[in-house]
Write a structure and sequence with these properties.
Blueprint (H helix, E strand, L loop, with lengths): L8 H48 L3 E9 L2 E9 L18 H8 L4 E3 L9 H9 L4 E9 L2 E10 L8 H15 L8
Antiparallel strand pairs: 1-2, 1-5, 3-4, 4-5
Helix pairs in contact: 1-4
């Protein structure tokens, strides 16, 4: 009688393939969830800054995001005219120090009616001139882990005295963006 050898390799290979496919499916699901979350976050940010610009009737509203300790850039903007775009601008990084970060972390709101009349650092004034700002309003976006970014409104054509209602609109916008730190990817 001839002995029959049973090959168990196809079965173990099949199990390995199933395990591999499950890992790929799980990875794809995780990637899809991150993508959906990012799209939702981006949509929330765009809508918020657009609504703020419309409510304030300003030339530009931007989100300045800190990607490293006090190093950041404009990651979102809403504009009255495309020629005012500063998307990707990193700002006057040499002007933003731990001292300013601490003030914004403590809730500082800075309203400048006219950069030509306000006493501000020369490097900050030069930077604001270079991006055509005449008046600006800056509100911090604070999440549980700290200062995430700055919400900034720019009046480019002329000076502007910021009202308490303007400040409240900006504070509300910053709170919307900071409400769920998961939305902001912290």
């Amino acid at each position: 009688m001839k002995q029959v050898k049973i090959n168990s390799q196809p079965q173990s290979k099949n199990i390995l393939n199933q395990h591999h496919n499950q890992r790929i499916d799980k990875g794809l699901q995780t990637l899809l969830e991150r993508l959906v979350s990012k799209i939702g976050r981006d949509k929330l940010i765009r809508k918020t800054i657009f609504d703020i610009r419309e409510a304030l009737q300003v030339d530009r509203v931007v989100l300045y995001y800190f990607y490293e300790e006090w190093q950041g850039q404009v990651t979102f903007e809403s504009l009255s005219s495309q020629k005012l775009s500063i998307l990707g601008s990193t700002g006057a990084n040499d002007c933003f120090s731990h001292e300013y970060a601490a003030m914004y972390l403590a809730g500082r709101i800075k309203a400048i009616a006219d950069i030509e009349l306000e006493t501000i650092q020369a490097c900050h004034q030069d930077f604001l001139r270079s991006i055509q700002v005449r008046a600006n309003l800056v509100v911090p976006i604070i999440i549980p882990r700290g200062l995430w970014g700055l919400l900034v409104a720019h009046q480019c054509q002329n000076s502007r005295v910021w009202s308490q209602a303007d400040i409240e609109i900006m504070k509300t916008g910053a709170q919307i963006l900071a409400t769920d730190s998961n939305i902001l990817g912290s």
